[in-house]
């Protein structure tokens, strides 16, 4: 990763664009060993992660990234901390959220190994 | 780490207790390869990290942890996502923050390899 900040910016744009467009397509970001902690619920593996995200109780969502900080990890990858706001369905008030992605690489390219999401009240 | 959630809870308690007590003592949590991104400012190494934290423009600070989620990483360590609130000096309004710690282990025990901190507005 020559330019890790550019990678992180591009990754988060693609991730949230996919999330807001068609959640089932988020499968491409995960692998069998991937972990998701979503509002303190823990799930493991691509099928379980996608099932969790697809099953969230809203029809539409729009994420807006406020900040995207990144550091290299020890695996030729990246640790990304996002803060932002999201709006679901017809709500008028956005919610603050924070999310961390740990990106590793395998033969097929970068993927999410660790994913932790929290709303911030 | 037999009980990673207990480790994460204990670590964050000790970290913020040290931060709020005597910031110079935070050196014990870092190593020469440690990275800190504090409000998007990046510093590397224990001396630079401690200098950054000690030099923050407040005299007193009190952190209160709201949530502490954790996952194992690939290095017999832990990836911890904290959300909470902090109050500096005589301010009356707490600020929301989020912080991620990537914990690795070496011969001397666990230490912080990645540290990213962001205020959430």
From TrEMBL, chains A, B:
**Name of this chain's protein:** Nuclear transport factor 2
* Keyword Cell wall biogenesis/degradation (UniProt): no
* Protein's GO biological process: mRNA transport; protein import into nucleus
Where would I find the NTF2 domain in this sequence? 7-119
GO cellular component entries: cytoplasm; nuclear envelope
SUPFAM superfamilies documented for this protein: NTF2-like (SSF54427)
Record the organism: Diplogelasinospora grovesii
Keywords attached to this entry: Cytoplasm, Nucleus, Protein transport, Transport
What's this protein's function? Facilitates protein transport into the nucleus. Could be part of a multicomponent system of cytosolic factors that assemble at the pore complex during nuclear import. Has a role in nuclear-cytoplasmic transport of proteins and mRNAs.
PROSITE patterns according to UniProt: NTF2_DOMAIN
Q: What is its subcellular localisation?
A: Cytoplasm; Nucleus
């Amino acid at each position: 990763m020559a330019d890790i900040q550019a990678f992180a910016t591009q990754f988060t744009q693609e991730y949230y664009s996919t999330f807001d467009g068609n959640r089932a397509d988020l499968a491409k970001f995960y692998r069998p060993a991937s972990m998701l902690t979503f509002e303190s619920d823990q799930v493991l593996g691509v099928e379980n992660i996608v099932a969790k995200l697809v099953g969230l109780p809203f029809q539409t969502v729009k994420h807006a990234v406020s900040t995207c900080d990144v550091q290299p990890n020890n695996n030729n990858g990246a640790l990304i901390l996002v803060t932002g706001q999201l709006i679901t369905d017809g709500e008028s008030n956005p919610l603050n959220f924070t999310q961390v992605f740990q990106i590793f690489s395998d033969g097929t390219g970068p993927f999410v190994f660790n994913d932790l999401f929290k709303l911030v009240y």
